[in-house]
Specification:
Blueprint (H helix, E strand, L loop, with lengths): L1 E6 L6 E6 L2 E7 H5 L7 H11 L9 E5 L4 H4 L4 H9 L4 E6 L6 E6 L1 H12 L6 E6 L8 E7 L2 E7 L8 H10 L8 H8 L7 H9 L9 H7 L1 H9 L3 H30 L4 E4 L6 H10 L15 H14 L17 H10 L3 E4 L2 H9 L4 E4 L13 E6 L5 H9 L10 E4 H7 L12 E3 L14 E7 L5 H14 L4 E5 L11 H8 L6 E4 L2 E4 L2
Parallel strand pairs: 1-4, 4-6, 7-10, 12-18, 14-16
Antiparallel strand pairs: 1-2, 2-3, 5-6, 7-8, 8-9, 11-19, 12-13, 13-17, 14-17, 15-16, 18-19
Helix pairs in contact: 5-13, 6-7, 8-11, 11-12, 15-18
C-alpha cells in the first residue's frame, strides 16, 4: 500500500509518502520555496511523487490532517466531515479526487496527527498519555489523548489556562512587538534567560482571566489591558525580560503540574508531548527531569510534523500496518554532489579536501563551516545535515554567527552539539538529546559561545550510527583542539527557511562571513 499524506492548510505545510510501513520521504513546503511557514503544499506533493519516481496512479490511499484545503483535496461533503472533526471525532473516512480518479482517503484531526507522531516516536507504549499543546488546533488549543488497546482516544480538551498554552506565548510576542509569525514564540522564549522571575509580573499574569484564550477577540483585548498597561510602563529590555521569565516559570509549572496529575490519575508513567509548545526547552527539561524520565517528543512536533503524524495515525490505527521508526534525516532526496561541485565552481570557490578531519581543522582555526550532506532533517532544528558549524570556544563566535551572519536578535542563544559518548561522560545520568529538545546546565568552559546567559544550552547529542559524518567531525575536532563541543545552528540566512540544495546554501551565505562550504565529501573554500 502506497500512502500519500498531506498537511494542506495553515503554516508549515508539507507531504510525506509511505510504502507499506516504510517512510519513503517527506518534504516541507518551505524548503522548496525558501519562504518560512509556506502553505503552497501542492509543490511538496509534486516533489515527493517525482523524487520517488511515482505518478498519481501509484497512490492507493490519501490522508489529510485538518484543516483541509477544499480546492486541493476535492472531497465531497468536506464541510460535514470537518464539522464531525471539530465535534471531537479523531478521523473520518472519505474519498478524494485530488489526483484525478477518486481514491479512498482518511481525514485525521490535527490534534490526533500530533498525538500519533508522538506515540510513534515513543514506540506506541500501552497507556501512553500525549499532551498536544499549541496555539490553535482544529477543536482545541490543547488536548490530552491516550493510546490504549490499539486505539487513540481523546480524554480531555482545553484543560490548560492561557498562560500554559501557545496562545500565551503568541499573545506575549505580539504585545512585545514581534508580530504574528509562528516563529514569534521561540524568539520570545529566548528573552526569558535574560530576566528573573518577578512576583509582581507573576501576579499580573495570574490575575488575567485563565480562559481569556477562549473569549471573542474584543473581550480578549479588555481582559489583557492590564498587561498592555504594564508593558507601556516598562519599556526597557530588563523589565520586559523579567516579565517573560515570569511567564516561562508560570508556563513550565502549569504544564508540569498538569502532566504529573494526569499521569497519576491514569496510573501510567509513559508520557509524550507534541504541538508547537513541545519546543519549549525549559518545560520539557522540567518534565523529563522531575516527572517522566522516558518523555518522548518528536523532532517535528510542530506543524511540520502534521503530514507524517496523519500518515502514522492512518497506518497504525486504521489500516493495522505498523509503521517503522523513521529516520529524522528523510526530508527530500540526498544532496547531489555534482550539483554541489558545479554550484561551487559557478560561485568562484576552489574545491579542496572535504573529509571530516579537514573540516575539523578549519573549525579549529576559527572558520565558520556551512555543512550540507544527505537528505535534510525533518522539523525545525538543524541536526547536522543542514547546519552552520563553528567553534563553541573561539571568543566572539556567537556574535559573528548569530548576529552578523544570521542577523538574529542579540539576545537569542546558539545551540551546541556533542558526541553522545562525550555527553554521557560530562552529564552522567542525563538522557540523550538527539533532537535539541532539552536544555542543560553547562559546565564552565565546555561551550562558552553556545551557553545562554542563564548558564544553559540547548544540546544536541550525536550517535555515530545516527549521523556518522557529524560524529566524525566532532571526534576529529576534539582530537585537534581538546574541546568537545561545536556551535550548531540552522543553515539559513535571515528570514529564509533552512536550505535544501547547494544553490540555496550559496545564495544565503556566499556574500556573508562563512569561510567554508562542505557538501558530501567535497569542501569549497574561498580563493
Amino acid at each position: 500500500m502506497k500512502l500519500l499524506a498531506l498537511h494542506s492548510m495553515g503554516h508549515d505545510t508539507g507531504a510525506c509518502l509511505y510504502d507499506g510501513g516504510r517512510l519513503v520521504m517527506a518534504m516541507e513546503t518551505e524548503r522548496l520555496t525558501r519562504v518560512k511557514h509556506d502553505h503552497h503544499v501542492s509543490l511538496a506533493v509534486e516533489y515527493v511523487l517525482r523524487a520517488a519516481g511515482m505518478t498519481a496512479a501509484s497512490i492507493d490511499v490519501l490522508v489529510f490532517s485538518t484543516n483541509v484545503s477544499a480546492s486541493l483535496a476535492q472531497i465531497p461533503d468536506l464541510d460535514a466531515i470537518q464539522r464531525r472533526i471539530k465535534a471531537g471525532s479523531l478521523h473520518v473516512e472519505a474519498r478524494s479526487h485530488m489526483l484525478g480518479d477518486p481514491l479512498p482517503c482518511l481525514v485525521v484531526a490535527h490534534e490526533a496527527a500530533h498525538a500519533a507522531v508522538a506515540c510513534h516516536v515513543a514506540d506506541w507504549p500501552e497507556g501512553c498519555l500525549v499532551l498536544v499543546n499549541e496555539g490553535r488546533g482544529t477543536f482545541s488549543r490543547n488536548a490530552c489523548l491516550r493510546y490504549a488497546h490499539g486505539a487513540l482516544e481523546l480524554i480531555e480538551r482545553d484543560p490548560l489556562p492561557w498562560y500554559g498554552t501557545g496562545f500565551g506565548w503568541s499573545a506575549l510576542g505580539y504585545l512585545l512587538g514581534f508580530g504574528y509569525s509562528p516563529s514569534v514564540a521561540g524568539r520570545v522564549m529566548a528573552m526569558a534567560g535574560h530576566g528573573t522571575e518577578s512576583p509582581a509580573a507573576t501576579a499580573l499574569l495570574g490575575s488575567i482571566d485563565r480562559d481569556v484564550h477562549h473569549l471573542p477577540r474584543e473581550r480578549q483585548r479588555h481582559h489583557i489591558q492590564p498587561l498592555v498597561d504594564y508593558l507601556d510602563r516598562h519599556r526597557d529590555f530588563g523589565a520586559r525580560a523579567d516579565l517573560v521569565s515570569s511567564f516561562q516559570h508560570l508556563f513550565s509549572a502549569t504544564v508540569a503540574d498538569y502532566c504529573r496529575d494526569r499521569l497519576s490519575r491514569n496510573g501510567v508513567d509513559e508520557l509524550a508531548l507534541s504541538g508547537g509548545c513541545a519546543l519549549n526547552l525549559d518545560a520539557n527539561s522540567v518534565i523529563r527531569r522531575e516527572i517522566a524520565p522516558r518523555l518522548a517528543i518528536p523532532p517535528n512536533c510542530n506543524d511540520a510534523g502534521q503530514a507524517l503524524g496523519a500518515a502514522v495515525y492512518a497506518l497504525q490505527l486504521h489500516f493495522g500496518v505498523r509503521p517503522e521508526p523513521f529516520d529524522v534525516y528523510r526530508c527530500g532526496t540526498p544532496l547531489d554532489a555534482r550539483e554541489a561541485q558545479q554550484a561551487a565552481a559557478d560561485a568562484g570557490l576552489r574545491i579542496v579536501d572535504g573529509d571530516p578531519a579537514a573540516i575539523a581543522r578549519r573549525l579549529a582555526a576559527g572558520n565558520v563551516v556551512a555543512l550540507a550532506h544527505g537528505p535534510a532533517e525533518l522539523g525545525p532544528r538543524a541536526l547536522g545535515n543542514r547546519s552552520l558549524l563553528a567553534s563553541a570556544s573561539w571568543a566572539g563566535m556567537k556574535l559573528r554567527v548569530s548576529e552578523r551572519i544570521k542577523q538574529r536578535e542579540w539576545f537569542r542563544p546558539l545551540a551546541c552539539v556533542l558526541r553522545e559518548e562525550t555527553f554521557a561522560q560530562i552529564f552522567p545520568g542525563e538522557g540523550p538529546s538527539p533532537h535539541m529538545l532539552f536544555n542543560f546546565a553547562m559546565p564552565t568552559g565546555l561551550a562558552p559561545e553556545a551557553t545562554h546567559v542563564d548558564g544553559t544550552s540547548r544540546v544536541q547529542t550525536v550517535a555515530r550510527t545516527a549521523n556518522p559524518v557529524l560524529h566524525a567531525i566532532l571526534e576529529a575536532y576534539e582530537l585537534e583542539t581538546g574541546a568537545a563541543a561545536l556551535i550548531n545552528t540552522s543553515l539559513n540566512g535571515p528570514h529564509r527557511a533552512i536550505a535544501l540544495g547547494p544553490a540555496d546554501v550559496l545564495d544565503d551565505f556566499i556574500a556573508r562571513d562563512v569561510d567554508v562550504f562542505a557538501f558530501d565529501g567535497l569542501m569549497a573554500a574561498r580563493p
